[in-house]
Model the fold of this input.
Amino acid sequence: MTSKRKRKWNLLPGQPLTELDKQVMYWENKGKEVPTRDLIRTPEEIEGIRRSGVVNTGVLDEVARQIHAGMNTLEIDKICYDYCTSHGATPACLGYEGFPKSVCTSINEVVCHGIPKEEDVLQEGDIINVDFTTILDGYYADASRMFIIGKTSPECEQLVRVARECLEIGAEAAKPYSFVGDIGHAIEKHCKKYHYGVVRDLCGHGVGLKFHELPDVPHFGHRGQGMLLVPGMVFTIEPMINMGSWRVFIDDDDPYGWEVISDDELPSAQWEHTFVMTEHGVEILSY
Done:
């Protein structure tokens, strides 16, 4: 006797099949990776994440109002901490796996996870990614933005613009009952037009009830691969686009082991939103 294959998608006992059940089971029967039911957020949970997203977006809006040449990144950390806590929320990064500050500030060749420091003073022409995650009432929202300090080079301006286009194109590719690989394929295709490198060592992720959940959302790949995306899933898209090689390394001078640098030390840019998948496509919860 052969044993029945255990399904990843469990039906609710005594409930009729929904369209969601039918779609997920169809793809599971085709051998595709599907989510477990616990990755589908309830309307109440989505509203909680949305409220957290409002605070998170407000943090980055406040940074946008105050960021300027001559300030150091420790000042940015204070702006973020003060805004977040004054709105009844908590910075998720602070103390997370030893991260010492409330926000990631990644300048020029720092791809991500840059640690705010008094000695990191913003100069005319710098590009910087500010990445913040908020916890409000137990719900997480995550987003990052690029800022150009004063006037930068045409090459850096293009990099920042293309990185944002990659996020937008990835979001457009995220349709209900499409696959994570569709997002990465669309981003990589656009990036290759400019001969940029899409970082492969880090990815987007599920978020909402925890800082990092499934699915992993790589920013390169092939259509039809990776986890099935269904209504109710909440995740980030956050392509890290390098002007040169996609390869990266951890800065040996970072005592915390967090700062990620482009391998050829050329500039890098990243934009990130938190999205919820709906019946019609993704909706932004934090930007």
